[in-house]
Design a protein that fits this description.
mainly alpha, 69 residues, 28% helix
Amino acid sequence: MGKVPDTSGNMARCICGGCPSYPAEGGLFCAKGKSAKDIAKRGCLCGDCPNYKDFGLADSYYCAAGVAG
Ligand code: SF4
Ligand code: SF4
């Protein structure tokens, strides 16, 4: 079980879509798990996301690493 609930409300707050590393589909990777795409790491916006603060996250690149545990 990850730290972030997989809810539509949390999906709506995810800012992955504006990220330079965004894999063109999906989001809320901290809850849903990593992308099926290969991630070119060009920066990660997670630290600016309201979910990041509210759920006490500390890492980045959840699209590549998977669920925040
Ligand atoms: S912490 Fe990152 S992956 Fe999780 S909702 Fe925010 S921007 Fe998306
Ligand atoms: S998890 Fe981080 S690196 Fe991946 S798309 Fe979201 S903000 Fe960008």
